[in-house]
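Hi C.,

You asked whether I'd gotten around to modeling the 393-residue construct. I have! Everything is below, sequence then structure, no commentary in between.
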Amino acid sequence: MDMITKKIAKEEMDEFYQSKFDYFRSPSYVAAMLTGLLQITYFISDCQIFGRFAAETLIPRFIILIPIIILAMVEPKIKSYKLGLHIYYLIAHCAMWCTIWAIWYLPNKDYAREGFIIMHLAFIAIGLGMPVKYHVPIHFAVIMNILISNLWNHYEHVDLIISLAVPVWIGASVLMAILEDSYADQYLIRKQLEKSSTTDNLTEAYNRNKFEEIVDSKNEAPKGLNMGSGVVILMIDVDKFKKINDTYGHDGGDKILIFLTERIKSCIRATDLVIRWGGEEFVVLLMGASPSVGLRIAEHIRHSVETTENEVCPITISVGVSQYDGGNYHEAVKRADKALYYAKEHGRNLVVHYDDIADLVEEKPDKTEKASGNKKGKSKKEKLIGHVMHDKT
């Protein structure tokens, strides 16, 4: 256990044990089922010991089918390693007590020690997916079962049975600890690979792979997220970032991106996601946020970036906002992008909600107006610009 806690933080142990259970679940389940089913085959050896049909042990040997059938019914519903821990080991203990029950009728109980040694192997196989800290005492219960049942079965060589069982239990415990430690290395490597595949190396924000991970490719809707009242999407872009790169170099540009990520994270909640969309663009998913809360957070981010010093130069950002309440997630991102484009085209350093400009951005521009530049008079966009830009102060 000490080896594991040195590698994995205590607060992450539950996740580690669940991962281990998920990885070894199939062999542990099969081992539990086989332990019960193979216990039935001992009826053949019972008949050999009796020299006839062993009717006495028929019920003790076959009653194990009841917990086996129950396990087969509930197994698909087992999700937690803690539940699997109790049920899988319970089957093994049931099989052992059925064997103890059958031994009561045998004229020669000397063969019990071979059966008990085999039972240790069953516990080792089931224990592959279980935490060592639980396996050790549960496996030790095999020895306790022998000692307790000896009160009425009176094994002929109980001292020999125990002297064989204890080293097997110790060896199994050490083996389980080594396997768990090896799986911890695999677990940490996999976690690092998962992080690398969904994390931007420079800013440590998520990358676009994270977005693809949380969006169902079939219906373009988010999966596995608690949206609550919906999701507010922020599309954020650094104003005049090319000029920053040209003036301060790419190192300066990188520092600005790291600074922006830090400012965004400081303004959002633990449940929200920051995704580096590409270049100097970021997408923020505000989970379970209402439109008003989304706008307030967007303005908070914009103000924080504008007023907080960084080690390169003062910067501003433009933010496009849209609301996702269902349907195609990518469409909601496109709406936020249109709002962002509108903000950058109308002064930058602004927060714009798509709903405020929906009628404007969906208008088809007049070809004559587009060709002449329409310098005469104010366009509909110019007239309504004051209504769509949210106060920066």
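If it helps when you're writing up: The domain at 208-388 is CATH 3.30.70.270 (Alpha-Beta Plaits).

Thanks,
B.
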